[in-house]
Amino acid sequence: MTVARPWGSWKVVFDKDDFKVKYLCIDKGRRLSLQRHKNRSESWVVVKGHPLVTRGDTQLYMQPEEMIHIGQGEIHRIEACKDDVRIIEVQHGICDENDIERLEDDYERK
């Protein structure tokens, strides 16, 4: 099942008790909220596009086939500034959609 979001969409590819795999589609010109998670960490592999990734105080452009780890509690965001972006996300820990603390959000979500 694909879940629509204002920035694009995501789809769960694999789901177990302590980890989940998602396919994220971020549309050009859109970005996820600046956020963090109390109960999980995430690892991202860029499949397509050149996302601008915020991790803590650092921002970097990533390339296809590159990967990055976001630690539990670490502030992060993905932006599709240049082109559409596709990412495989592996969540580790308690993978609950309610475990999102949004610090900034372009779409006025809490």
Task: Explain the overall architecture.
The chain is mostly beta strands and 110 residues long. The chain has one domain (2-104): Jelly Rolls (Sandwich). It has no helices and eleven strands. Strands 1-2-3-10-5-8 form a six-stranded antiparallel β-sheet, with no helix packed on it. A hairpin with a 3-residue loop joins β2 (8-15) and β3. The protein is globular.
Structure described in brief:
The protein has a single domain, classed as Sandwich (Jelly Rolls), CATH 2.60.120.
- Which class in CATH terms? Mainly Beta
End-to-end CA span:
23 Å
Q: Measured on Cα atoms, how large is the radius of gyration?
A: 13 Å
Strand order of the largest sheet: 1-2-3-10-5-8
Oligomer: single chain
Low-confidence stretches: none
Number of β-strand runs:
11
Could you tell me the CATH topology label.
Answer: Jelly Rolls
Question: What is the fold's blueprint, element by element?
Answer:
Elements (H helix, E strand, L loop, with lengths): L1 E4 L2 E8 L3 E8 L7 E3 L3 E9 L3 E4 L2 E4 L5 E4 L5 E4 L5 E9 L7 E4 L6
Antiparallel strand pairs: 1-2, 2-3, 3-10, 4-11, 5-8, 5-10, 6-7, 6-9
